[in-house]
Write a structure and sequence with these properties.
There is one protein chain. By secondary structure, this protein is of the alpha/beta class. It has one domain: NAD(P)-binding Rossmann-like Domain (Rossmann fold, 3-Layer(aba) Sandwich), CATH 3.40.50.720. It contains 6 helices and 8 strands. An 8-stranded mixed sheet has the order 1-4-3-2-5-6-7-8, sandwiched between helices. Helix 1 packs across helix 6, helix 3 runs parallel beside helix 4 and helix 4 packs parallel to helix 5. The longest helix has 29 residues.
């Protein structure tokens, strides 16, 4: 079951996204939840999606304090039928999707030497981090093309720009996302659709990565959300194709 909550909010000058509808994948917790919260604070109606109903409900409860409408919809973004149902429900209950943030992603089992990984490990990471983006854009882009407007933001990683020991499968997924997104940007810009990549370094969440970071040397989910807002609020005649985001302090 999906849930939708609505309430009346006065319009305000500080709600620049008040006429927008955003769909954020992997948004029940961590970076995705912070992004959904930020877009709601800026006035957008927001669909949060993920696999777990309990965390989705908690996210929606927090987000609905800031937006006129929030939809919580359980979905598997690696499955084409589930993606189609998610997109249809969002458009039916919130309105035309104008912002798509592809945030869903996993780390493990993508870390470790490639020769120690199984085909199932590869499929899980690539399906979640890359195939899901293909499926989401395949479902949403034709709607945006028809309306001649839209924003697509991919949450990638600095692992899509750099290699490191034990990162083979994970890096492959993020390097693939870099290439896919660059080509999409060229395919869609003529329709008034902007495609942007945000590549953060390590973020302090429960994302299964390469181990804990020294205090103060990891980004916060809110830092990534701020970058998303910056991309969305740029002037209409340009688009920021890529943001690389790093903490000020480096690990010692």
């Amino acid at each position: 079951m999906n849930t939708i909550s609505s309430h009346t909010q006065p319009s305000a000058a500080d709600k620049p996204l008040k006429s927008e509808v955003a769909l954020v994948t992997g948004s029940s917790r961590g970076i995705g939840r912070a992004i959904a919260m930020k877009l709601a604070e800026l006035g957008a109606a927001v669909c949060v999606c993920g696999r777990h109903k309990e965390t989705l409900a908690a996210a929606a409860s927090a987000i609905e304090k800031h937006t006129s409408a929030v939809l919580a919809y359980p979905a598997d973004v690696t499955d084409a039928a589930s993606v189609a149902a998610l997109v249809a429900a969002t458009e039916r209950q919130l309105g035309p999707i104008t912002i798509l943030v592809n945030n869903a992603g996993i780390g493990n089992p993508g870390f470790g030497p490639v020769q120690e990984k199984s085909p199932a490990d590869w499929d899980l990471v690539l399906n979640t981090n890359l195939k899901s983006v293909f499926l989401m854009v395949r479902a949403v882009a034709p709607l945006m093309i028809e309306r001649r407007r839209g924003e697509i933001i991919q949450i990638s990683s600095l692992a899509g720009k750099n290699t490191f020991s034990g990162g083979g499968v994970y890096c492959a997924s993020k390097w693939g996302l870099q290439g896919l997104s660059g080509c999409m940007a060229e395919d869609l810009r003529g329709y008034g659709i902007r495609v942007s990549l945000i590549c953060p370094g390590s973020v302090a969440t429960d994302f299964a990565g390469r181990g804990p970071k020294e205090a103060g040397t990891a980004l916060r989910p809110e830092d990534v959300a701020h970058a998303v807002a910056m991309v969305l609020l740029q002037g209409p005649q340009s688009f920021i194709s890529e943001v690389q985001l790093r903490p000020v302090r480096k690990p010692s």
